[in-house]
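Q: Focus on the chain.
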Amino acid sequence: MSAHSSPQTGQPHRTPNSQVAHGHPLGFWFFFWGEFAERCSYYGMRTILPIYLTASVSMAGLGLTDNDSGSVMSWFKMGCYMLPLLGGFLADRYFGKYWTIVGFSIPYVIGHFLLAIPHWTMVVIALVLLAAGSGVIKPNISALLGQTYDQQRPGQERLRSAAFMWYYLAINIGALLATLALPELNRRLGFAGAFQFPTWLMVLALVIFAAGKPLYATEEIDRTPPTPAERRARWETLGRLYGIFGLMIFFWIGYEQNDNMWVFFIRDYVDLRVSLLSAPVPPEQLQFINPLFVLLLIPLFNGLFRWFDPQMKIFTPIRKILVGFILGAAASGMMALAGLLAETSATKVSILWPALAYVLLTAGEVLLYGTGLELSYAIAPKNMKGFVTACFLMTAAVANFVNSYFVRLYGGSLKDAIEVRGPLAPSVFFGITALIVLAAAVAFFFVGRRFDANSANRATAS
């Protein structure tokens, strides 16, 4: 029997365990399939976006240089990672999570329709709408999912944890299918036809999510401003995390190049012929390795950590994040080596070079992102977990801001005229990126030790 919100307090009534259902509530499936369709839509659009921006006008593209395209994508992703702060604020103080999601899904859909119009003004408007939709929605769907379980399956933390696992699975299956499908659709139908796929998927996502409204948690909007004590708690929590958050920015600087500058390098310097395939692999399609290995590595890492270190004495959160930094640096280093080989041999390099780089980068992402998110959630007080999570996402926003200028230094484009390229050869550009991430890893080693020491002192004091 489902728990209902008390009209006086907005808190779920607690019912005897014998009266509480133990399976997933029906509303979960609306979350699952709605998120699956939305992530298919988002990652499908993003997969072919760099090629669309740089394709010539005669091919119905925008005709931007590689550097300008990389900068545009960085600004777009910065918006996607900044706007969760706005999304949480609007949902908590004014509209509630459901209506915030539905309200911003509409401009999200409009943005998809406009993106297929190969005109610079239309594309800018489209990207603004897409960033607003994706960014504002991002923190609210997962929060509403958790709230639904808290109300309808009270006290069943294991069931709620399983729901989030399936939810994360939906995200990555959607991303995997989209990154495989969109380049093929683009090859067969052109950009206008290919962009129809994510557009109508987003329409489907909105319809599915809206249809499940009666099955979601009952929301009570609390417009009470935070007390001085709550504000102090926010700053104290961020004070404990600022060193970790600050260094994570440098990991994302390397990571966020994988869907733009890596794609341009692969297009120009990688032999994309595979013996089992009749046609060369589209350069943007190699991005499928990321969601594929997310799906493979999460259960693998979880199993290994449980098997070898059930008490978390060896693989502590800080050490997992440190390994994530090192793997991120190794991924950029792999791209630098591929660049050096292509420059010195004057021949295209094997597809195995960027493929391995994607695997290393994904392993680093799984360790750093998943662990960092869990660490942030665990440290934050109950009344500010959403705020701290949004601040964690802001680290990627800052990294994309840096990249919007840094990628302009890339000089490896073989498509653009020499005078509009940046000054750095691919090996140097990716090598500098690798050194940036590696330096952050060294700094994180000392910051992490201090964080662990402070946490141990707090535990002893309490």
